[in-house]
Design goal:
Chain A is of the alpha+beta class and 519 residues long. Chain A is built from 10 helices and 28 strands. In chain B, strand 5 and strand 6 (49-54) form a beta hairpin. The chains are: A alpha+beta (519), B mainly beta (835). The A-B interface holds A 1-8, 10, 18-20, 370-371, 400, 402-405, 437, 441, 499, 501-508, 511, 518 and B 290-292, 325, 375, 378-380, 382, 384, 387-388, 390, 410, 412, 415-416, 440-441, 471, 481, 483, 492, 494-499, 531, 533-536. Chain B: It is found in: Nucleus, Nucleolus.
């Protein structure tokens, strides 16, 4: 004999991206701290030593922030013009920065005035870096040259004049003091060896190169330029491995997570994409308010710092374990395990006589009332679920009543208070696309049933007016959506290649947009 | 049944068992019910079909225990005969030829030698008027008797058997029709007529639906269309009659029955709740709810221990009198319409179609038994007239049977249809399908066609659904993307359309590399790998009706039928029409195991079948006038074992069998002569092996008596072949199916006995034992007589008395003496003679 089948509560798919380990990891950051700087933030660099301060280069200053401070702990202001590329040395004591006035300045982190000034470039210096032996400085400039400087003597060691356009990015090897790589707007990447006078390797990126990144093993090189991010294998003589095109504007900055498993790329399109470094698929995506020029990750991914063109610095700190546990701890405390197994693990003894008891089916209260055809009461019970923020259950019961053909009976004969509650629920959920198909007929039915008494209660009338307003707004919104859809269709149709066979208008990813309402 | 040389069209199971009220035998061990042209005997404890009483040539309309002999049963049929059967052995005893179609049969113990039947008033079958006629049975010993002594009792009765009943041991007969109740008293030879108003004040309808008479008291219970039950008393007066009203049902009462002692009244209707009212204390009621579907008939066993309810979903429920369900006999549910196509489950090889509302039924074709019902909708079924329910409208299986897709649909009045697409995965552990994905509103309009990709590699599963909203969608199961807490689920991969036309049918090629979707008169061919439109084929002027790819060697052909009576064959290598012919094909389907295709053509009220290969213009087989009316549902079911038929015309039946549903929802199939012979042989074997009525004692004795009968000269049965004893027992053991064998303890003694060298050797010793058993044998002899196929000599029954009259007249004592002599063991005598 069949038993009562409880009302099926529809499980609605969660919209948006799927929850993966990556989304959990990258979402586990607090709300960003935003700091206004004086101009576009072109560079952010973390100090490699303990407190991990970071230097933010913006306009004519370099601010050094502490890991949790919102005020700069240090400000370097001795620049005549826009500063570029403030970099820490590997011991965290010295900082080098280029400048629009072509002078490269070396600072002591504790002092204010420049220790050394390297003059020799004829145009703005956008690239500065220390070599791994800590005694030399690499610079790249808009005069198409890149130079090596000696710190103790403040002299120029060598000058490389191979690029044919601005040199805008460069990176030194952390393992070999003589190797460094520069990228230029002439679309090429060049690997130099300080022991030789010429570049030892040249790779063509295809677009003006904006950013370079070496893997910790230094076998792979990542370059960003135009919309492309490319990975090169240096050990195979600069063979291109992967080319990724996930941004729709120029990629400006590259950065690697601390464990080397994830690659981050920031772009002028206001997005930061996180790639898996094994298959180079995008696993996560951040949105920012403006075009991003610079991005840096603190050691151990403790914070993500992004600098934008609108001179806003956004700092996101990782949640501490207590804080992340707090979110899940908000759920209702469930009874302990002991309560559930109560007596169930009792093993019968040999001479025990087992009395079989029919298993009682557990039913929710509204199901019990539905079983006895108590339709009005079951609707009352279902409405109380709204307080628990579960409109699915109320909607499921309304749908079930509609299927049984008794929704009208359940809705009729109510008082003012109750009707106001129901209308409140409708106002909250009617325009939700998941519930509209069920709630729209119910709303019509309410209007049918209570048409005669409209105007008797100011409370109900006010809510009816709100409902009407809501619907009008929704209709306008839908109309706008349809217009956008029409525009998209024309765009897609014009971009499709002309085939000999009359091609149908296939809409692969935009079919969701066609869910229009019928009011 | 139509013969076509070698191939015959035969009924294959699934006939209705709920058309008429079932009958429970006196000892409550068997249940008899009319099923199509047969009467089926079920065991009430095991639910197995024990016998199949075959003989009628048209629909059986009534089954009735013979009041004077509880081991015999009457059955009446539209073919104009009433037959008397012995149901324990399944033997036809007598046939009474009435000459008119019989719609119901009644008898009572008070009226010996008479039974009452309902026949049309005019001799032509189409008349709407029926009359109750008493038939006096002629005394004759012949098998076939013509009954001509007919006398009308009541005119203008209802043809519904539930609307007439005998009261108080046959003193009166009551009949209801429309708004009138008529009671005829046999003693007074007078009838009374009572009428009700058409509508009562509250708008309920008073039409009488069924009737039941109290067995001891002067009381008639009538069930009405508005759900009321009226208890009529004092009805032997024209004016002073009274009635009381009972009301619980909210829809029409379809059946009423008093228990044999008259203490309780049972009623049932659409609500599928059996209500038990205490007689005279009607406020006390017992309910047995959730019986599954509407109750159509209620029967009570003569001793009152069992109730049977037959239901609208072709089911009989056996209920103990303590209101507890003890057994369920379920037939193939073919309701008003089969919405899903006929399908064959690739794993269980069972036929799949929609059955009970919201369910799919899996029906074993080999065993003619419902395997299980799968709940698709998973919602509480509300038993109410006029309510729009969810119906399963489409089913598809993938080739290995791992996935099943179902579409359910509900059309509320003046609202958009609700459609759900569900995908079910086969669970090895529970051996059934488990819901994997539910897609609500997969399309905006009705889904017209659905099919799985036939890809043999089993790597990717793909489902394509076409809908009237002008799109077809491909659904795919992603391989990798699944998180640890939930398994993979299906999602939409592609949405395609063609010039805004509505797709009608879709079909994958045998290797899954091509998808053909028909849009009106255009067939579009797509590549599922890249979703590119490869080519379009069309054969105007009318829309495509059916599409079908060729299989195996003919996989380069695409077959299509159009509404303008064309059967087209396109070659996909040249993208051109290979051949076409003009015929009105109502259904086209391909055999998955061979290259053959079957086309059902509708021509002048009857259907022809053509079986052909797409590569050959000449059909492999053509059968004319397979059945009347249009065939719209058919399926090729693979055979369990291949047939070895060498004749060319029946070779297409070797690997698979073709089943189809006729207009009247009969399930038919095609068989060859050889197959039928084999089936008949196996059924005969089964029949001999039937062991339900056997006791261990009977087995030992019965075996012995068979040998005895060989010695004696009175050999009557030609069916019992003289076989070597040992081999017979062993053969029985080995060849009969395990489920019909008695328990091992029973078989053991028989088996051991068969291993003995010979009973005759030890006859001297056994003789003493034999004499001790003599008295017990006396009791057993009635069954022994049946074994030898002679009518049971029972002086009370007039029909059989005449059979005896042919022999010289003997007194009872003489007869008994003669039988004892016959039964003595003459084995020793034979031994003496031989030695």
């Amino acid at each position: 004999m069949a038993s009562f089948k409880p009302t099926k509560i529809q499980v609605y798919p969660k919209l948006g991206e799927k929850v993966t380990q990556d989304t959990l990891y990258w979402k586990n950051y607090k709300a960003p701290v935003q700091i206004k700087e004086f101009g576009a933030i072109t560079s952010i660099d973390f100090s490699p030593v303990a407190p991990h301060n970071f230097a933010v280069t913006a306009f004519t200053r370099i601010h050094i922030y502490g890991p949790f401070s919102q005020e700069p702990v240090k400000t370097l202001t001795r620049f005549k013009d826009t500063a570029y590329c403030g970099r820490f040395r590997s011991d965290g004591q010295l900082l080098v920065a280029g400048c629009e006035d072509s002078v490269v300045r070396l600072f002591d982190v504790s002092g204010k005035a420049a220790l050394r000034m390297f003059r020799g470039h004829t145009k703005a210096v956008h690239v500065t870096d220390f070599t791994s032996d800590r005694y030399q400085i690499l610079t790249g400039s808009d005069d198409y040259t890149c130079r090596l400087w000696d710190i103790p003597n403040a002299t120029e060691l060598n000058s490389y004049r191979e690029h044919t356009d601005y040199v805008r990015c460069g990176v030194t090897s952390k393992l070999n003091r003589d190797l460094f790589i520069t990228g230029s707007y002439d679309h090429t990447l060049k690997l130099f060896d300080a022991r030789a006078d010429k570049s030892v390797m040249t790779m063509d990126h295809g677009q003006p190169v904006e950013s370079l990144l070496l893997y910790p093993s230094e076998g792979l090189l990542v370059s960003a330029g135009g919309r492309h991010v490319k990975v090169w294998d240096l050990l195979k003589g600069g063979q291109p491995l992967v080319s990724m095109k996930n941004h729709h504007k120029t990629v400006t900055c590259l950065c690697l997570s601390s464990n080397g498993q994830r690659l981050l790329s920031a772009s002028l399109d206001r997005h930061v994409k996180v790639y898996n470094t094994t298959n180079y698929k995008v696993v996560h995506n951040f949105d920012y308010a403006a075009s991003i020029l610079s991005l840096a990750l603190a050691p151990n991914d403790e914070s993500i710092v992004a600098g934008m063109t609108n001179s806003i610095l956004s700092i996101k700190h990782r949640k501490s374990p207590e804080e992340s546990a707090e979110v899940s701890g908000q759920q209702r405390r469930t009874p302990s395990y002991r309560v559930f197994v109560k007596g169930k693990n009792y093993a019968p003894k040999q001479d025990d006589y087992l009395v079989s008891k029919p298993v009682k089916q557990h039913l929710a209260k509204y199901d019990k009332q539905l079983r006895t055809f108590n339709v009005s009461n079951s609707l009352d019970t279902a409405l109380t679920w709204t307080r628990l923020r579960k409109p699915e259950i109320t909607v499921a019961v309304i749908k079930e009543l509609d299927r049984r053909g008794t929704l009208k009976n359940a809705l009729a004969g109510r008082d003012e208070q109750w009707l106001a509650r129901l209308l409140n629920f409708l106002i909250g959920n009617l325009v939700d696309p998941r519930f509209a198909a069920v709630l729209a007929p119910a709303a019509e039915m309410i209007l049918d049933v209570y048409r005669r008494v409209v105007g008797q209660s100011p409370l109900v009338d006010r809510q009816l007016l709100r409902l009407q307003e809501l619907l009008e707004r929704e209709i306008d919104y839908q109309q706008d959506l349809l217009e956008v859809l029409g525009m998209l269709d024309t765009l897609f149709a014009s971009s499709l290649p002309r085939l000999e066979v009359p091609h149908p208008g296939t809409s692969r990813c935009f079919y969701w947009a066609s869910c229009n309402y019928t009011f | 049944m139509v013969e076509h040389g070698d191939i015959r069209v035969v009924h294959r199971g699934g006939s209705k068992i709920n058309s008429r009220e079932p009958v429970v035998t006196n000892d409550s061990r068997f249940l008899l019910c009319a099923s199509g042209e047969r009467v089926k005997v079920f065991s009430t404890s095991t639910e197995e079909c024990v016998h199949d009483l075959r003989g009628h040539t048209d629909l059986v309309t009534g089954v009735l225990l013979r009041p004077t002999n509880h081991l015999q049963v009457y059955s009446c049929s539209v073919d104009g005969t009433v037959r008397l059967w012995d149901f324990t052995d399944g033997i036809l005893i007598k046939t009474y030829d009435i000459g008119y179609p019989v719609y119901a049969i009644y008898a009572s113990a008070n009226h010996e030698g008479v039974f009452f039947i309902v026949t049309p008033t005019q001799s032509d079958n189409r008349s709407e008027l029926f009359q109750l006629v008493a038939v006096h049975l002629p005394q004759s010993g012949d098998q076939l008797v013509e009954a001509q002594e007919l006398s009308a009792v009541l005119s203008n009765v209802s043809s519904n058997p539930a609307a007439t009943g005998f009261g108080r041991g046959g003193e009166y007969i009551a009949s209801a029709k429309g708004l009138h109740l008529e009671v005829y008293f046999f003693k007074k030879q007078k009838s009374y007529r009572f009428s009700l108003k058409e509508d009562n004040k509250k708008g309920g309808k008073n039409t009488l639906m069924c009737i039941a008479c109290h067995p001891k008291d002067d009381c008639i219970a009538t069930g009405h269309e508005d759900g009321k039950i009226r208890l009529w008393r004092n009805f032997n007066h024209k004016k002073e009659y009274t009635y009381t009203t009972l009301h619980w049902h909210h829809n029409a009462v379809s059946s009423l029955r008093f228990t044999p002692e008259g203490t309780n009244l049972l009623s049932g209707g659409l609500e599928s709740v059996l209500v038990q009212w205490r007689y005279n204390q009607e406020s006390e009621r017992d309910f047995l709810p959730r019986l599954g579907s509407a109750i159509t008939h209620i029967a009570v066993s003569p001793d009152g221990t069992l109730f049977c309810t037959s239901h609208s979903d072709n089911k009989i429920t056996i209920i103990q009198s303590c209101v507890k369900v003890s057994a369920v006999i379920q037939g193939l549910v073919n309701g008003e319409s089969v919405r899903t196509d006929l399908m064959v489950d690739p794993r269980s090889k069972s036929l799949v179609l929609n059955g009970k509302p919201g369910h799919l039924q899996f029906y074993s074709l080999q065993r003619d038994k419902l395997l299980y019902n799968l709940d698709i909708v998973q919602q509480e079924y509300i038993h109410e007239l006029g309510l729009q329910q969810f119906e399963v409208v489409k089913v598809a299986f993938d080739a290995p049977g791992n996935w099943m897709a179902t579409v359910e649909e509900r059309k509320p009045k003046a609202a958009e249809p609700e459609i759900n697409l569900k995908l079910w995965a086969f669970d090895e552990q529970t051996q059934s399908f488990v819901l994997n994905t539910t897609v609500s509103a997969p399309h905006e309009a009705q889904i017209t066609s659905m099919c799985f990709s036939q890809a043999a590699d089993g790597q990717t599963s793909m489902l394509v659904s076409a809908s009237e909203d002008g799109h077809f969608k491909a659904w795919q199961l992603p391989r990798s993307a699944c998180t640890e807490d939930e398994g993979p689920s299906w999602s939409c991969d592609f949405v395609g359309d063609y010039r805004g036309l509505a797709p009608q049918c879709c079909c994958f090629s045998a290797d899954g590399s091509l998808l053909a979707v028909s849009f009106q008169e255009v067939v579009t061919v797509w590549s599922p790998a890249s979703w590119e439109l490869l080519t379009t084929l069309s054969q105007p002027p009318k829309a495509i009706r059916d599409l079908c790819f060729g299989r195996l060697g003919c996989s380069k052909y695409l077959m299509g039928t159009t509404a303008s009576n064309l059967l087209c064959c396109w070659n996909l290598l040249t993208c051109s029409l290979e051949w076409s012919t003009s015929m009105d094909v109502s259904l086209l389907l391909s055999d998955p195991l061979t290259e053959n295709m079957a086309a059902f053509c509708c021509q002048a009220e009857s259907t022809d079948l053509f079986v052909f290969k797409p590569s050959e213009p000449r059909p492999v087989a053509s059968l004319k006038a397979v059945c009347s009316g249009k065939v719209t549902r058919a399926v090729f079911a693979p055979r369990e074992e291949m047939l070895e038929s060498c004749e060319e015309s029946s070779q297409w039946l070797n690997r698979s069998q073709l089943y189809f549903l006729t207009q009247h929802m009969d399930l038919m199939t095609f068989t060859t002569k050889a197959e039928e012979d084999r089936l008949a042989a196996s059924s005969k074997q089964l029949f001999i092996d039937d062991s339900v009525a056997m006791t261990p004692f009977y087995l030992l004795l019965g075996k012995h008596r068979k040998q005895e009968n060989q010695d004696s000269l009175t050999r009557l049965s030609a069916e019992l072949m003289p076989l070597p004893r040992g081999s017979l027992a062993i053969k029985e053991l080995l060849q009969s199916p395990a489920h019909v064998l008695p328990s091992t303890s029973v078989l053991c003694s028989m088996f051991v006995e068969s291993l003995l060298v010979s009973v005759a050797d030890g006859s001297e010793e056994s003789k003493h034992a034999e004499e001790e058993m003599e008295s017990e044998k006396e009791e057993e002899d009635s069954e022994g007589e049946m074994e030898s196929r002679t009518p049971r000599p029972e002086p009370a029954s007039p029909g059989l008395q005449s059979a005896e009259s042919a022999a010289p007249a003997l007194t009872k004592a003489q007869l008994k003496e003669l039988r004892r002599v016959k039964k003595l063991d003459h084995g020793w005598l034979a031994d003496l003679l031989l030695s």
